[in-house]
Amino acid sequence: MKKLFTSRRRKDEPRGSCSPLLAGRWASIGLLAQSGYTLRDKNLKKLHRAASVGDLEKVKEYLQLKEHDVNTRDRDLRTPLHLACANGYSNTVSFLTEKQCKVNVWDGENRSPLTKAVPCDQESCATILLECSADPSLVDLDGNTALHYAACRQSVSLAAKLLKHKANLEAQNKQEVDLSCQDIYGFTAEEYASFNGFT
Fold first, then answer.
1. 134 pairs with which residues across the strands?
2. CA pseudo-torsion sign 15, 118, 54, 41
3. Percent of the chain with pLDDT over 70
4. What is the largest CA-CA distance in the chain?
């Protein structure tokens, strides 16, 4: 059985990073997203700071005291959910979604929490968002969807989950990367996912 994505990652290379062979190609089409966010502590509100470090007790405290709204934004239009997703704090993500935070909301780069979780390789956070009806077909400023980022990261399981939740396989980014293109064997990503029991 063929793999959906082949990995040429070195053993010392972090999981979720693009292989060196793909890095140049993906960067040229705007797909090498910086993992996480560059954060300046002084620019963050208390709730954002707590969410960015996964301090669930502080998040609960700030929301319980009505000091902050669950959907409050910082200077870069990020919500606490964006920051928790980018840094992989699934317990904080679960709590924020239970508090009815918006899951289909954009930051200053037009990225939703899902399109931030996927390139940061935060699968547990992405799964929670998908279960809370996050739209996997939202696009960022470069026209990339979460599925584009999953392909860049060579994440078969994330790509399969996105496809299961109706990610747009026809989506093209601004560089016209077509997710429905065929490989040298004539198969698409969706067909590989199906062969491997993911659809």
1. none
2. positive
3. 70
4. 58
Query: How far is residue 95 from each of residues 81, 84, 99, 166, measured CA to CA in Å?
Result: 10, 10, 6, 25
Instruction: Give the CATH number of the domain where residue 74 resides.
Output: 1.25.40.20
Model-level pTM? 0.73
Question: Could you report the per-residue pLDDT of 23-46, keeping only the tens digit for each?
Answer: 444 444 344 444 566 776 677 889
Q: Where in the sequence is the domain holding 85, given as residue range(s)?
A: 36-195
Whether 18 is covered by a domain: the verdict is no
Q: What are phi and psi of 178, to 5 degrees?
A: -105, 115
Burial 56-79 (b: 16+ CB within 10 A, else e): bebbeebbeeeebebebbbebebb
One-letter amino acid for residue 110 of the chain:
N
Q: Output the six-digit token pair for 20.
A: 């060196």
Alpha-carbon torsion 82, 56, 122, 138, what sign?
negative
123, part of any domain: yes
Residue 126 lies inside a defined structural domain of this protein: yes
Whether 48 is covered by a domain: the verdict is yes
